[in-house]
Design a protein that fits this description.
three-stranded antiparallel beta sheet; alpha+beta; homotetramer; 293 residues; 19% strand; five-stranded antiparallel beta sheet
């Protein structure tokens, strides 16, 4: 960096973990933790050492957030902004789409959920789950605003395909929806189709079931998507498993585990969206925007 | 090809469209069809010509099916098989997971759905939708059997990320689930976790909510996923839209349009799964399997 | 194509070989031809069939020339032009650098060499080599004019590295020089360094030993390079070799073989240069130039 | 690392520069140094700061040597070894090909040149050049032994194209030769062709003008190549140049500059060769060799 300006060189950073407690995981070293990556890593890398799998920890996503924050500065110069919210935790789910401004206002609140009443219920629910020694799944919604029409590719690298890949690369992600997503399975064309009309001289769509992308290419509407996360696999409850010698065993978590990836996954989802969009903008020939950091 | 053996050279093929009827689309040439790619293509390529968007037609997926059929032969030598079914059309949905054999038996039936009673209801429903001049969304399930543990990558190219990208690259795909997918948002860790146990000397999981992938890497269980497709945007009903000159207009479809991408999307989903798995197998250092075609 | 304008879709073409004479190669089918790819292909692909190696024929370069001609139209809109000449055949070699205009004027002459007297000597020499039943090596020079400063990458994808890769991918290429190239080994810094000075208000270099690239990035001077080609391996003279059963054998060429890759390699060198520069221009964020064909 | 074994995670390292003397370069901060990357970097990145170009320093190649040393361990398990020598400095050049063992024995000698008498002349010559305040070009030869036949690709990623790209990506590299390289331009096919014959039951070539690669694919012979390097652009002699304000200026180097990239470039050439070969081996489906470090 020279006076807050990137130089064209790769940006490097180092995050020191000043609160590592490896002893908390020591009692798990002989076990394959259920729904963790221990077993799959052992099979892939052929090395029977529990420390290998530390790379599968969500600590890895800190790097994505750093990279995403640079990408967001680049995108903002092109008028592109990104917001994410916690849209569901267990049975509690928002009941309407929120605008970009509403989503932004939820940023920094305890659960990053724009519905305050719902947020309170979610908090109580999380407390209960924690007491049970259990964990719970959730859903994060993301919105990318200000994308000009014409960004994306028409066949294999469709814009939604790149977003799907980015989101499913986040630890514990289990599903991805673009626009109305899963609800589209039950919709008729006459309900789903986003009709074009003229607003203030611009061609816009009356609805946005397509989530801002048609034929793999942005149409100028908000890009709206959801990512579903599974419950964190580490729980305090006893579970049956198998140890690294292939013998049955019982496991019980002790380390510092969250109960739900929300709200911590919100900035990760935002970061991955920013990285995808920055790549797309550069591929589209708009790379000449410089960034101050 | 030399005696049904690939030679190492790229495989090329040409599919002649012997039943093209361009006149069926001529009346649409001045209109942006709702939820079609017309508008986005125009903005991306800067060319105001309706023929450009023919590349967004599902005819393009024929090439994927050809490529996938070669990949499947390669995979079968490694013991990897792929099956797909229609799992939902509009409000009609299968009510349990089907085994690989059951899924295979549905292949070639009229809707590629393994539940015969449900299949009959779906057919009546599709007839009604067609009479209404409308279209309907659906869900396709895919299953990849025989994948050895240890295939996939731990960070950005997680196996589920590559599958998600491949599936969202299919025309009209709107959502992707790996394993329990969207249902994971409402599940507790104690419900979701796939407990390890010993079966016939092999380490297996009692359930398969993870869909055969943990930490981005296969764990040896069936890889199970779902793809949700939106309703086909071309319908016979009248719809409001805008023409290429930016004036309001009314559109009414006439060409030969399907009412639902199922069951035709089933082989496309299978083909994309095959291409992803063949790439993964080669990246994993198992490329030496030769293929006869 | 729509009215001579590309549509954004991949461009496809098919060249029918209307004068194939496979019988001319039949007598070689059991032999590994010296310095041909027969043996290496057999080892790589594991298939003992002489037809595999037809892909190693220079016929393949016709596709490169087609692609390059599209790239050249794109480049010309950005003011970038490419010329190539035959600079040496056997012992006959040009004795100075030629300007872009001089190089262009050689285009279409019998050997594509700008020195007419030398060209005549080369022709006699080639006639003699042909009579001997032999073949001969050569050198092609390329020049890319009009490249703005700032194109290229600073580390692994240095502009000269991409050019080197492109040129060494041409059949029979044996060496690549950027700027003064091989002569640099014997030069002092005080001789080689390209001193900056001001010409008509622009910063230019007095010499161009760097060949228009410094630190992997264009400096606005002509990009000048050489490609050395080995003699065509197919000759009419008898040669010792080994057959596909591993037994000693004698080989004698009969097919229609050129005596030297010059001048036919000139357009191939130009095409590869065009493809590299078009990629670089797009990566540099100047992709918005549309092309009419 | 776990007990000297890689874990599958990316390998990271940090080299602290404990002898940086930025003040040595301060007097150059306003000047475009001749044949340096200053001007091209300024044009590419649009930032008028002399520190940007530090990335163009050969210090960057230290990382390549580290990566290459890991790759070499991997290659050695597959029986592949790499050696490099200084083959020419200014007018002093070796007069024959050296065997792998001879080249290895030169490793660690003052100039890494296997001809001791020549080496002494080169040392005197370098002393003289240094006294003149000048620098000099050179040539490095590389040899890769033990490559099985069948490694490489037949068209754009020919093995020689990948090597050429790797070598031209090294700072100050100006030319690349595979096998007889530049000498091929003057050779007849009957001289150049590498005749096949049987040695101890193996098919080998009598000569190795092709440098171990035919049709882009290894043929089992030693892979032999040369890289020509230009003289180091920083010299103590006064040179004319232009400053960052576009005014004529005079430059005189002061920092710690080598006089010739040899012998320091030898391990860099070896490292790049190792990285290319390790990639090729993995692409060829031989990735399962594990490495202890």
């Amino acid at each position: 960096m020279i006076d807050h300006t990137t130089t064209g060189a790769p940006l490097a950073f180092l995050i020191a973990n000043e609160d590592a407690r490896p002893q908390d995981y020591e009692h798990l070293s002989e076990l394959y933790r259920p729904s963790h990556a221990d077993f799959a890593y052992h099979k892939k890398y052929g090395i029977n050492d529990h420390r290998l799998v530390h790379r599968a920890s969500a600590r890895e996503t800190a790097s994505r957030v750093v990279a995403g924050s640079i990408a967001r500065q680049y995108l903002e110069r092109a008028g592109i902004k990104i917001a994410g919210i916690t849209s569901a935790i267990g049975p509690y789910s928002i009941d309407r789409d929120y605008s970009f401004e509403e989503m932004q206002q939820a940023s920094g609140t305890s659960l990053e959920c724009p519905d305050k009443l719902l947020s309170r219920k979610m908090r109580s629910f999380l407390t209960r789950i924690r007491k049970e020694g259990d964990s719970i799944g959730c859903e994060i919604q993301g919105l990318i605003s200000g994308v000009p029409p014409g960004i994306g590719d028409p066949v294999f690298n469709k814009l939604q395909a790149n977003l799907a890949s980015a989101m499913l690369s986040i630890n514990a992600a289990a599903a991805f929806d673009i626009g109305s997503g899963r609800h589209a399975a039950g919709m008729k064309g006459s309900e789903y189709n986003d009709l074009f009309s003229i607003h203030n001289g611009h061609i816009r769509t009356a609805t946005n079931n397509s989530g801002g992308i048609q034929g793999g290419i942005s149409n100028g509407e908000d890009i709206r998507f959801r990512v579903i996360f599974k419950p964190i696999p580490s729980i305090s409850k006893e579970q049956q498993t198998v140890n690294r010698d292939g013998k049955p065993a019982v496991i019980q978590g002790k380390g510092r585990h969250d109960v739900c990836v929300a709200p911590r996954a919100v900035p990760v989802v935002e970061a991955m969206a920013a990285l995808v969009m920055a790549d797309q903008l550069m591929i589209s020939g708009n790379a000449k925007i410089s960034v101050e950091i």
